[in-house]
Amino acid sequence: MADTAKPKATGKTGSRRRAARNNADSHFNGEKPEVLLDYYRQMLLIRRFEERAAQAYTQARIGGYCHLNLGEEATIVGLMEALQERDYLFTNYREHGYAIAKGTHPREVMAELYGRSTGVSKGWGGSMHLFDARTRLLGGYGIVGGQLPLAVGAALAITYRGSDEVVMCQMGDGTTNIGAFHESLNIASLWNLPVIFVVINNFTGMGTPVERSSAEPELYKRGSAYRIEGVRVDGRDVLAVRDTATTLVERARSEHRPFLLEAFSYRMKGHSVVDPAKYRTKEEAEEALANDPIAMFEERLTEAGILTDEIKKEIAESVKAEVADAADFAENSPHPEVSTLFDYTYATPVANESRRMPADPVFAE
Ligand SMILES: Cc1ncc(C[n+]2csc(CCOP(=O)(O)OP(=O)(O)O)c2C)c(N)n1
């Protein structure tokens, strides 16, 4: 699967590559090549990870729901580059790539998808509920909009303690129509909380286009009723996302204000792994593939002489190995003990917590 989606060789001649290298600055305004290649690698890692997850799902290695970040890689890497390590992140259920880019090891993410005890949520969360306090990823939520009030609460805690972290709260376009969106934006603005609401506009909430669900389809404007400044960015462009998000993150930190960032990109597959996306026309499906952010970045890097065939091969191989290692790790990890089912339900032990499972005899010794 990963092989068929391998980036195409560009076939540029050496002299053209050299000439292009001289143009690198005009393409990228003095960006360091190693930084650009790191972004490229991160994006490719997320792509290959997700492809492998899709494969594992169809082989019944992964259960439950599974939503992929295919097509959103530039947005994810750009957003995570804008955060400091101490900043908090809340996401919806489409979050594998965010966890990896925020610093969780791909092994622990894959193991969680497989429901193994070595997973980042000890195997009890699954695809939609990745949680990593070490990297300050505070979930992974399956309820549309469920993450928003919690993100606002985290921002309130930051303000209450007088510290200088910010909260980023990611969501999909469809989420802007849920009540929690409006309640959360209202309180965040009223109480001057440092939270960046990021709307990933992939133009579709499950199978419903934005224009059919939002009276204001220009989503960055949807905070205006709450006096929240909104900005739209091309989510296919990792550098544009990084720069725009960095400005908002730093403004939230210094001005103690919420902001709304809309990043648009294309969902390359269906809503979840099991959705064949039959509601899309052939043209729409082709349009999504033509807007592949990795292919676009690869072309720019190649034009600038930063991504040579050799480097491309090297990165592709190391990414392939890392994903294979993550899948092997997951495959060979144990399932969690049933007796630990309630261990992570509450922060503190609960006096009458039941250890009895439905299949256990009621009067067991
Ligand atoms: C409260 C609630 N209502 C409905 C659902 C079912 N549901 C799951 S995903 C989804 C669409 C959300 O679309 P969007 O916010 O655009 O996010 P995307 O899937 O595009 O990332 C819906 C309606 C849900 N999980 N929670």
Automatic annotation (TrEMBL):
GO BP terms, alphabetized: pyruvate decarboxylation to acetyl-CoA
Q: Which cofactor does it need?
A: thiamine diphosphate
Annotated Dehydrogenase E1 component domain ranges read: 42-338
Q: Which reaction does it catalyse?
A: N(6)-[(R)-lipoyl]-L-lysyl-[protein] + pyruvate + H(+) = N(6)-[(R)-S(8)-acetyldihydrolipoyl]-L-lysyl-[protein] + CO2
What CDD domains is this protein classified in?
Answer: TPP_E1_PDC_ADC_BCADC (cd02000)
* Natural source organism: Thermobifida fusca (strain YX)
Quote the protein name from its UniProt record.
Answer: Pyruvate dehydrogenase E1 component subunit alpha
What PANTHER family does the database record attribute to this sequence?
PYRUVATE DEHYDROGENASE E1 COMPONENT SUBUNIT ALPHA (PTHR11516:SF60), PYRUVATE DEHYDROGENASE E1 COMPONENT, ALPHA SUBUNIT BACTERIAL AND ORGANELLAR (PTHR11516)
Per UniProt, the keywords (alphabetical) are:
Oxidoreductase, Pyruvate, Thiamine pyrophosphate
Q: What does this protein do?
A: The pyruvate dehydrogenase complex catalyzes the overall conversion of pyruvate to acetyl-CoA and CO(2).
Q: Which NCBIfam families match?
A: PDH_E1_alph_y
Entry annotated with the keyword Oxidoreductase: yes
In the record, what terms sit under GO molecular function? magnesium ion binding; pyruvate dehydrogenase (acetyl-transferring) activity
Instruction: Output the InterPro entries linked to this UniProt entry.
Output: DH_E1, PDH_E1_Alpha_Subunit, Pyrv_DH_E1_asu_subgrp-y, THDP-binding
Give the top-level enzyme category.
Answer: oxidoreductase
